[in-house]
Amino acid sequence: MKNIFLISALASVFLIQGCSSTSKTVRIPTELQPVEQHYQLGLDWQVNLKLIAEADGRSLRMASDDNHLYVASSSGLLTALIQQNQSRHTDQIIWQKRIDAALLAGPVVVENKVIVGSAKGDVIAFDAQTGQVQWIRYLAAEVVSQPVIANQLILVRTNDGRLVALNLQTGSVVWTADHQMPSLFLRGAAPVLVDRDRVYIGRESGFLEARSLQSGEIIWDARVAIPSGRTDLERMVDIQAKPVLADGRLFVLSYNGRMAAINPSNGNLIWAKELSGFRDFKLHDKVIYLVDQDDILRALDPATGTEYWNQQALKYRGLIDVRIDHAVSVQPQLMLADRLGYLHWIDPKDGTILARFKHANHLDAGQEILDIYQQQQRYYLLDADGNVSAYRFNGVFETRPGRAVQSSKEK
């Protein structure tokens, strides 16, 4: 299971490797079974920035504009890279800026601005071409969610329960929405979902809120998950996955709680299913694809919550959010990465693992993947060793009958 970091109201930090609140449970990653084909990804270039702590990587995402790739690190380093391979390694970097705090959220690129959030509570806008600071806004608490841009507003969340709307051009505070935090909650926060004039926020208390985009005023709130258990750990019901809106329904997933479909106009519950997860999920071709807290991939019917299939071959391997890959075949495939350094492609129809690729260092050791950014048949990987690796899709390598490619090392 992917390590989960938690924060208490007393500023204590806990690391949970299992789900028991009374003892540490050892989660042994499932050993990989041979697959019939491996996708060939050719390495174009690789740049090492600095080691990224997993605790601080939850809301870090790579971003791009037409030609540049932007990467933030928990070491406080923001880097702009040229996407295409350069003749010299040093030419790959356009500019770098370091601030005196860990970067925890972003970057997001919009209108020639690169937006990041820091552990000191700063939201900073950099010039995308030069790296010069355009403005800084101090929010007095860690910025822990991926910034969302809508209607000339930047929406960010802080670890004291606030949702803050900032003016995109000046950084001034437009409005703030507070929320009472529970005594114990997962580190980080889901980015908000914006649809027209509303903002939807999944809270650490297990509530989903709808607020006005213009004013931040509450429109409705709905309880998604009900705390149960004897201890604070057992009663955590954080909504860490970003809500999804499709076909007139809001879909939301909570930790230690439920997957639910909600009416976005009034917050009424349409259906709910007992399920626990904290990663972002996808709704594609009228199917919900999600990874639960045990790293089991599940496919659900969005109309009823009925499960179509589940894939347990990657259990406890520390999977990241589900991706939809349109580049490797005529039909889209699901793509998952695990913390042992493997990319897995999965058939969305039945959950069959179709192919895999190992992201490894020069010693053939898998490197933990924190984020994937894809542009057509190019893949940019950010790993926990601080490497940004640019791969291109080169085709398929099929395993011969009776042979198990890399099976002895795939653990």
Compact overview of the structure:
The protein is mostly beta strands.
Describe the fold and architecture:
This protein is an all-beta fold. Among the domains are: 31-49 and 281-411, Methylamine Dehydrogenase, Chain H (7 Propeller); 56-178, Lipocalin, CATH 2.40.128.630. It is built from no helices and 36 strands. It has strands at 4-8, 13-16, 37-48, 59-60, 63-64, 68-72, 77-82, 93-98, 103-110, 113-118, 122-127, 133-138, 148-150, 153-157, 163-167, 173-177, 184-186, 193-195, 198-202, 207-212, 218-223, 244-246, 249-253, 257-262, 269-275, 282-284, 287-291, 297-300, 307-311, 323-325, 333-337, 342-346, 353-358, 369-375, 378-383, 387-398. Strands 30-31-32-33-3-36-35-34 form an eight-stranded mixed β-sheet, with no helix packed on it. Strands 4-9-10-11-12 form a five-stranded mixed β-sheet, with no helix packed on it. The protein is globular. Mean pLDDT is 88; it is low at 1-23 and 400-411.
CATH level 4 superfamily of the domain at 31-49 and 281-411: YVTN repeat-like/Quinoprotein amine dehydrogenase
Would you identify the regions where 5 or more consecutive residues have pLDDT less than 50? 1-23, 400-411
**What value does the average pLDDT take?**
88
Percent in strands:
over 45%
Number of strands: 36
CATH class division of the domain at 31-49 and 281-411: Mainly Beta
Give the strand order of the largest sheet, numbering strands 1, 2, ... along the chain.
30-31-32-33-3-36-35-34
Number of helices in the DSSP assignment? 0
The CATH architecture of the domain at 31-49 and 281-411 can be given as 7 Propeller
N-to-C span: 14 Å
Percentage of residues assigned to helices = under 10%
CATH fold type of the domain at 31-49 and 281-411: Methylamine Dehydrogenase, Chain H
**Major sheet size, sense and barrel closure:** 8 strands, mixed
What oligomerization state is this entry in?
single chain
* Rg over CA atoms: 21 Å
Structural class category = mainly beta
Overall outline: globular
